[in-house]
Amino acid sequence: MAPARTFGLVCALREELGTLRERSALHERALGLELLEVQLGDTRLLSCVSGVGKVAAAKATAALVGAGARDGLLVVGTCGGLKRGLGPGTLVHCQRAVQADLAVREGREVEACAHLRTAWMRVAAGPEGWFLTADRPVLSLWRRLRLARAFAGPAVADMETAAVAAVASTAGVPWAALRAVTDGATGFGAASFRLHYPRQAGRAADTVPELLQSLDGSSLP
Q1: Which domains does the chain have, with CATH numbers?
Q2: For 93-106, how does the pLDDT look when each residue is reduced to its tens digit (9 = 90+)?
Q3: Which of 40, 167, 171, 175 suits 59 as a labelling partner, its CA being 20 to 30 A distant?
């Protein structure tokens, strides 16, 4: 009997799969990437470790959609906090993803699926915020302050979410993202990332089984 639905999951690095690494088996190879499969209740989850950056993330998302992950796409991993209060260990839900280093403003912002986001917040407590996706890690204090001033409210920096959002939106697939903060709005970004990444890398992914279980039987837009 075929699974009721198929979701996709994208992360940049293998550590960001968390405990899903041990639970998954190779499903297929697509576009030069490994797609891993795990059955979670009535849901089949296809996961892909994309590699770092927007191009890699867009490629992975296209591979997942092509393999049948059309019921929802999830982004997990880590991020850098751009506002005070978003310190290491904070789980942040994406309200809107922005290609922060794209000069053209039209089409660079994509809203996350409200239904998915709300369901995820019920199983993984944390604030909502804008995910500012750039081609380079935002580790210097000057770049953090510049981005923080440009966007009101809670905001974090990452390197993949907006690309996943753009592909998912074009394909008509609902999406959501959850990331754990490894480094805050200070001048010690690189050192903080190295210190906190091992513990924070898989935290978002480890909430996915409970999220998908909570969605069993519910309908997404």
Answers
A1: 5-215 (3.40.50.1580)
A2: 999 999 877 666 66
A3: 40
Residue 148, pLDDT score:
61
What pTM was computed for the model?
0.89
- Give the three-class secondary structure for 39: strand
- Report DSSP letters for 83-134, one per residue: STT--TT-EEEEEEEEETT-S--TT-EEEPPHHHHHHHHHHS---EEEEEE-
pLDDT in tens, 52-69: 999 999 999 999 999 999
The DSSP annotation for 131-182 comes to EEE-SS---SHHHHHHHHHHS-SSEEEESSHHHHHHHHHHHT--EEEEEEEE
Query: Do 55 and 25 contact (CB within 8 A), yes or no?
Result: no
